[in-house]
Design brief:
Length: 215
């Protein structure tokens, strides 16, 4: 069962890596598919009740908005530079997170502890990066910004539960192995921090983009 025989109230590592942590990745992928179907239908058949000029405005991508921005006057160019800088930081953090996931999987494998379904996290990280880079395939994925934000929050929470349960087991467990418990807790804690920053960046970038698209 999911409860450890040695620690009656502690969730086992197998349960954490096979069910709990990958749960939000499965939900993200399933919701992403549904949102793509909905968004594609809305994109092809916009509501006749929406004025034509409004439809055009809603369908504009951030890239198109930035291209048509005025070159001077109200500080817009400076905000564009800030947006690009935050976008670069966003993708760098995603790359760092992918490398951290690879590191965790490799170290768990070397220690013969099993990786569960953790590789799914890699798939989702790459997918989320692609979704943002393509701006939800240029508007064809319904509510993609909210999906990405929910993903970062969910991954931070589930990994937080994981680190809490592993802390209860004690940082001295697996001492002397190739991947001590203390090292895994440190790695997961760093990943939680990165997920939190990604969530903040997702909010900041989304608010900026939605404001620009509303102009």
């Amino acid at each position: 069962g999911p409860l450890s025989h040695l620690y009656g109230q502690i969730v086992t590592s197998c349960f954490l890596d096979t069910i709990l942590v990958p749960l939000c990745t499965w939900l993200y992928l399933a919701t992403l598919i549904a949102s793509t179907i909905i968004g594609t239908r809305l994109f092809r058949h916009p509501s006749s009740n929406v004025p034509r000029h409004r439809r055009f405005r809603d369908s504009k991508t951030t890239q198109e908005v930035e291209t048509n921005e005025p070159a001077a006057g109200d500080g817009i160019p400076q905000r564009t530079k800030s947006h690009k800088a935050l976008s670069i930081l966003y993708y760098l953090l995603l790359l760092a997170q992918i490398l951290m996931c690879v590191l965790e999987i490799v170290r768990l494998s070397i220690t013969h502890l099993g990786v569960g379904l953790l590789p799914f996290t890699l798939v989702v990280l790459i997918t989320a990066a692609a979704v943002r880079f393509t701006k939800g395939l240029r508007g064809r994925i319904y509510a993609w910004r909210y999906l990405n934000l929910a993903l970062w929050v969910a991954l931070a929470v589930t990994n937080g539960v994981k680190i809490a349960q592993e802390t209860k087991e004690g940082t001295g467990s697996r001492k002397g192995s190739k991947y001590p418990e203390a090292d895994e807790i440190t790695d997961v804690a760093v990943m939680i921090g990165v997920y939190a920053v990604l969530a903040l960046l997702e909010i900041t970038l989304s608010v900026w983009e939605l404001k620009r698209m509303a102009l």
